[in-house]
Description:
By secondary structure, the chain is of the alpha/beta class. The protein contains ten helices and 38 strands. The strands form seven sheets. The protein has a 20-stranded mixed beta sheet that branches. Strands 10-12-16-15 form a four-stranded antiparallel beta sheet, with no helix packed on it. The longest helix is centred in the C-terminal third of the chain and has 38 residues.
Amino acid sequence: MVDFVQLQHAMKERLERDRAINIIEVEGATLEETVAEAAALLDMPVRHIEYEIEVKGSAGFLGTGVKKWKIKAYQRVTAKTIEEEKEAADEEAEEAAKVILDKDGEAYVQLLYDGAYLKVIPPVGRGQKVRPSFVNQVISDRFVTECDMQLVEQIIKDEASMYVRIGSFQHNLANDTMATVDVTADEMKATITVTPPGMGGRDITQESYLGLLRSSKVVFGIDEEELTRFTDNPSFREPFQIATGIRPADGKDAYIQYNFETDQTKIRLRESSSGRVDFKDLNIIQNVVEGQPLALKIPAEEGIAGKTVTGKTIPAKNGKDIVLPLGKNVHVADDGVTIISDMNGQVILAGGKINVEPVYAVQGNVNIKTGNIIFLGNVNVSGSVEDGYSVKAAGNIEVHGTVEKAELDAEGDIIVSQGITGRKSDGMIRAGRSIWARFIENSRVEAGNLVVVADGIINSQVDAFKSIICNGKRASIVGGRLRATEEINAKSIGSPTSGTETICEVGFDPKSKERLENLKGQKEDQDKQLEEVQLNINTLINIKKQRKSLPEDKEVYLNELMDRRQQLTDDLAGIKAEIEKIQAFLNSLKARGKVSASSKVYPGTKIIIRESREDVRNEYRAVTFIQEDGLVRVTKYEEPDEESQKGPDGYITT
């Protein structure tokens, strides 16, 4: 099997080489156009490329300062690609293991101190067996005498791969094989050099070679398989490496394996299920949750000592340890090597340390440079949120500029220092708690507690679970539909000119009432369907009674209608149960509901308090509308409660 760690390193090196070859630089007026052009040049979909921004473009001002976007793009290599490479390497290794090399049989003759010896080695794979004629020739070449040919035939047949004495020879001491051993200066290699034997000269046995090596102090790294092969078929007058030392391997230094992208400038575009890429979703923010593992320290490795052929130990260096890069809002797990997040937020690597930031700060506007923002903490935008972009936060959202036709969604508060200017059909501002803004115009706004506005609300749909308060010098509500459980309060309500409808509804939870109205509409539709189905069933049953039976297709249709009736009945039961639950909740609300104006309420304004309704026909000054005896009554103006007069905690609105 291929070592996966080695494969990963190889893949990284290969990726760097590929990037050097396939990387391209592209310029364009916008980031979207530039990325699309890069994808076209690389001849692959956008989802298959990665890119790095070299120069951020700028639209300039009044025709000056225009700067084009410039990126480097290359093909994306994913973890899947690495896994596929590993699988392919494993398959190649398995296939290689299956390959059997064909090799013919061999025959060797050695002349030793007590006679001539023969060894026959069997073939491998589809190799050919040793021919007797070849063996006879080998024996003849070494001038063997008194040879036992019957024994030779048996040895050829057995192919036992071991030396057997077959005869004798006329020994000539002067022609014996001679061998010398050489060891390199660093004692990491040992070689044997052998002279060929002459007529009647003896060969050297494997045991003799080992003794010669020991006498030269070569005791480690001897390749005995190679020595066996060399003994049978030596290469004469050429140094043959017979022993190899092991060089020391220094231990790897400890390092940090990050579970997040450490390059904060890297853009990660995502492709939808339909294959389209939204260039507003740049996914620059890396959200993490409390308890999430952020990084792992891979401990330093101990060095592996080396050894010379003479048996000397060569020490190795151990890898160096490192200090865990602990920053803010992180801690070390009990295992001592895993870094864990202490909170929800954005993980970043700053100054070599891992930090989790509870606040994501946007310097400037939310636009094409930042993309849409999703953050598991608080978001602070120093500029504005431009048309078509969204900011979603698990905490609070503060925008120091304006919010245009955009989407803001926060589990906490939303604070807009300037104003919200959208379109009723597009964009949505939604807060789990309260919303503060200078003004709201042509927008849809929803808050789980308060909506507090300084200047006014114009032609907007505003829902608040508790109150809607306009408390500035020009605090007016003109046009639109406002709904709150407890109170709507402004300096003036309605318009002095006709044509703009202003509706103020209090005394109920806006969300629950809207859901109730939807359910009632569904119930009415289901009732009609059930009535029609029942009518069709009755008709078919009457026909069946008259004719004693129905055609097959009509019988099938009758069964389908009965199934449909049961489905509608079950659905209606669920709808009725939810309606009753919501009605019980609305009836349990203790808020009496009131609509107040410290200055004027103009004719044409519609006041709805619980089930009571009043169409204002006359101009009123400094009044509060309440419900009394099932009717809307006009009383003296009441100031809003103290909570609505306060600003959001930790924020300053001007």
